[in-house]
Design brief:
about 200 residues; alpha+beta; L,D-transpeptidase catalytic domain-like; 6-stranded mixed β-sheet; 11 strands; about 20% helix; elongated
């Protein structure tokens, strides 16, 4: 019985240490503590979201991106109709804050700045390549796929399909899970407002 108590105490101490380190890093990074995400692997993709638009709903389309909560909320005529987890820009590649609008859409957009270097057989030689770096002999650039892309800034910030972990992971773009990226893309006219905070 004593062993069971010791094991339980050790597990509780481990959980508290993990929670404390998660809380501390969240506070230092400006993100809220999300206990339901505490034991989620940082590389695990998520697909959380919903869409519930009444058939006859009309009005201004507005997407509000909250980089602290790592969520995007979709409004039509002031009514929230959608929600999606996101991954915004990581440290050193922050997503810009402010009021923007969708200036272009491209269903199968490819990044002109980030991607991979592959050889003639299609084998990846360099992952996470940034345009401007040296390209090894026999390699060529392939831009990262940004399907269901909606351009937000002239400097290359897009909202698009990508791996979403509910943590900042991108080079500044706003990644959405495939299902939600497709829904947002199909329902968002060019000119729609995007508020990033």
């Amino acid at each position: 019985m004593k062993r069971i108590y010791l094991l339980a105490a050790a597990l509780l101490l481990f959980a508290c240490d993990s929670a404390q380190s998660n809380l501390t890093s969240s506070l230092n990074g400006g993100y809220i503590f999300r206990p339901e995400k505490l034991f989620t692997d940082a590389t695990e993709a998520v697909s959380d979201g919903y869409w519930d638009k009444p058939a006859n709903l009309e009005g201004e389309h507005v997407i509000v991106v909250d980089t602290r909560l790592q969520q995007a909320k979709y409004y039509i005529g002031g009514r929230q109709v959608g929600l999606s987890d996101i991954s915004s820009g990581k440290a050193g590649h922050g997503t810009p804050k402010g009021v923007f609008s969708i200036i272009d859409k491209d269903i199968d957009h490819v990044s002109a700045s980030y991607g991979s270097i592959v050889d003639s057989a299609g084998e990846v030689m360099i992952e996470n390549y940034t345009v401007g770096q040296a390209i090894p002999r026999g390699g060529h650039y392939e831009g990262a796929k940004m399907n269901f892309g909606m351009q937000i800034t002239r400097s290359g910030i897009w909202m698009h399909e990508g791996i979403v972990t509910s943590a900042p992971e991108s080079h500044g773009c706003i990644r959405l899970p495939r299902k939600m990226a497709k829904i947002f893309f199909e329902n968002t006219p060019v000119g729609s407002k995007v508020i990033i905070k």
